[in-house]
Design goal:
Layout (H helix, E strand, L loop, with lengths): L6 H25 L7 H42 L9 H10 L6 H8 L5 E5 L10 H4 L10 H10 L1 E7 L3 H13 L13 E4 L2 H11 L3 E4 L2 H7 L5 E5 L11 E4 L2 H4 L4
Parallel strand pairs: 1-2, 1-4, 2-3, 4-5, 5-6
Helix pairs in contact: 1-2, 4-6
Amino acid sequence: MAESSSPTEEIGRLIKRLSGYVAFKMSGLFSTPIRNLDSRSIGAIAGLAIAVIFTWRAIRRQPEIRRPKRRLQSDHETSTAPSPDVSSSPHEDVVDQFFQPGKPTLGQIVRQRLSEGRKVTCRLLGVILEESSPEELQKQATVRSSVVEVLLEITKCCDLYLMERVLDDQSEAKVLQALETAGVFTSGGLVKDKVLFCSTEIGRTSFVRQLEPDWHIDTNPEISTQLARFIKFQLHVSAAKPERTAPNVFTSQSIEEFFGCA
């Protein structure tokens, strides 16, 4: 059984038949004078010419119609082809684990919590020292060991000032000696000239306003309330959270807890 011919082969055979017929007719036309042609001959010639023109256009358009179909099929196959699953690559898992950020250092946490502040003021009693009243400082001054590392990190990125109300010069000497013994002055970021003393709570408030810090750390809620309008941020150190605080006043039981190292 003969195989079915393709459309291209059929068009080729049609052209051959038309060529033979055209050659036969043209030979007859050239042998007959034009004035002797009747209307049938002229109509046949015109019809033949139209058939040849349409056949030629169909041949030229045929590949133009088929090419876009092949391109569309190719595009469809490309879009539906499954993409390789790169997420399951063991090599990328190893790279992700290698470059995974570790636990932030205390220095990074301090800079982040202080919002890149450049100047910090802090009271001593109840924050840096174990004692909580000026009367206790007349007997002794003890630096809380857990706060030293935080203080040293603060001095690395900020200009730190410590301040406190005292009752006499002996109390000042005890505080400075306790700070020096704890190693607070060894880093070079904090010097004795930045430890300020006054005789009243109003004096401490005045210190803070004159220095214009980015952060102030205190235990007195009244001072925190008074300074809220003038200081960008404050940390109120207290075991109990006040009922009302300004939006820029944070509360923590200690500065170690605030910086996440308690």
